[in-house]
Amino acid sequence: MTSQTHQTSAKERVLIFDTTMRDGEQSPGASMTIREKLELAELLQEMKVDICEAGFAASSEGDFQCVSQIAELMKDMTICSLARSTLTDIDRAGEAVKKAKSSRIHTFISTSPVHMKHKLRMGENAVLEAVGASVTHSRKYTGDVEWSAEDATRSDFDFLCKAIDIAIRSGATVINIPDTVGYSHPAEYGGLIRRLIETIPDSDKVIWSTHCHNDLGLAVANSLAGVINGARQIECAVNGMGERAGNAALEECVMALKVRGDSMPYETGVVTQKLSRASKMVSSITGFPVQYNKAIVGKNAFAHESGIHQDGMLKHRETYEIMTPEDVGVPSTSLILGKLSGRNAFRDKLESLGYVLDQPALNDAFKRFKDLADKKKHVFDEDIVALVDDQRAGDKERIALKRLKVVAGTDGPQTAEIELVIDGELQAAQSAGNGPVDAVFNAIRALAPHDAVLELYQVSAVTEGTDAQATVSVRLADQGLVATGKASDPDTLVASARAYVHALNKLEVRRQKAKAA
User: Fold this and answer.
1) Residues 438-456, buried b or exposed e (16+ Cβ, 10 A)?
2) 165: closest CA among 209, 116, 132?
3) Sign of the torsion angle spanned by Cα atoms 312, 315, 316, 321
4) Which of 297-311, 317-331, 460-474, 493-507 has the lowest mean pLDDT?
5) 341 lies in which domain range?
6) C-alpha distance from residue 112 to each of 130, 146, 154, 207, 377 (Å)
7) Using one digit for the tens of pLDDT, what is the confidence trace for 394-445?
8) Has residue 60 been placed in a domain?
């Protein structure tokens, strides 16, 4: 094996060991079928992940078959099976990976006092014997053997050194130092890796690996600390899947090394543009949603709603983004419009939707947008289109809605109080009706008498959710003239009133045109 150097020169290679299908699947409720694992393995291979821990062959017939099939089909990455230190486990793992173009057996045993006493019920000598026997036996199946000291971070240092020394002398090519229970912190974990490398003979003959759990939220930080101090393999999982709080997230480790190459001069071979796709696939397969604010692959990772942030982004992307969304396979940055958004972001969104407004119209539209954003959680593009179209429809109209109050419910009667501005004069009326919409329309008729017949009343939601804007269409017909009015509002009754008034105004314009003709 090529000796590993631990002094950072140019860009040193860090291997990515994906354990989504093994440790990740141990998340309660996250089991995967063979077909799903094969699909994920294909994507990991496309991503150029170095090692895929495809399963724990001895745990079940299904896992054995899965590891075997992946080993046979995936030719561009090393396929690994986990095995305890028992010879039967190792035989099963060896059989499962035998068809792999590049195979590895990953065998482990606990080295911490608490694990040896309460889990293994073995003394130190028995554990050391098992280390040597398991690595030696694994070498019969493959020249690439990884040995792990389970619960290494809570182990006695001198005993840990003895176990690692035996593993190396028995033929291990990779030494993994797991923070199995997520107990360590970066300074401590990095220091442990460095001290082991400095203490153990022939430490330069093996690859040192990290395997950090996230119980204290430090899995990625600990993994990077391990790399800085000499580790050249990171064991991780897509979306940070894994036991309890999970493992170090593959996407976070990879992008941290890519973005901060200035202070961490290491590189991986991972095709980062496929990270978002991998995240979505794992989430879909396992049914585990990705939190919105998850680093790198969360829905909000490249979304900006604050007006200050949006203004900075519009002026120069690097003001608030340290990587591009395209780097991880996300199509583009999202400027999410909401109550915190500023005028510049709103103007930019309007222009992207094909609207160029003069300053007065922009000011009015922005005010209406802010009013809408206070009423609903998410303002979508469709909301903005409806808002601007509704504003344009209301320009220079003879009749305008000023205020509406409706009483509805099972007790009845349904009534509407309305205020309209008609030819510049504010007028008010109250009417009852057969339902709240009928009451609203009767109140409008009381203030603006007409003989038009309501031919169409249609309500549709602009976007999803209970706070979605309603778009109402109203068609009125009078003596051969037909006019359709539309309006949108989170309140369906307000939208109904505006649409009816809009139709009345259009009908009046058509009457005037008909008389002129």
Assistant:
1) bbbbbbbbbbbeeebeeee
2) 132
3) positive
4) 297-311
5) 303-375
6) 15, 19, 6, 22, 50
7) 555 789 899 999 999 988 789 999 999 998 899 999 999 999 999 999 999 9
8) yes
Q: Nearest 10 degrees: CA dihedral of 153, 154, 160, 161?
A: 60
- The Cα–Cα gap between 61 and 392 comes to 67
Q: What is the pLDDT of residues 29-40, one digit of tens each?
A: 677 888 899 999
Report residue 487 as tokens.
């309006």
Stated pTM of the model: 0.68
SS3 state at 247: strand
Cβ pair 436, 457 in contact under 8 A: no
User: What are the residues whose beta carbons fall under 8 Å from the beta carbon of 227, sequence distance 6 or more?
Assistant: 14, 210, 234, 257, 264, 266
282 φψ region: left (φ > 0), alpha (ψ -120 to 50), beta (else): alpha
98 with 205, same domain: the answer is: yes
Rounded Cα distance between 174 and 155, Å, is 19
365 is a domain residue = yes
Domains of the chain: total: 3
Strand order in the sheet with 414-422: 399-407, 414-422, 425-433
Supply the DSSP string of 462-503, one letter for each residue: SSSSTTPPEEEEEEEEETTEEEEEEEEESSHHHHHHHHHHHH
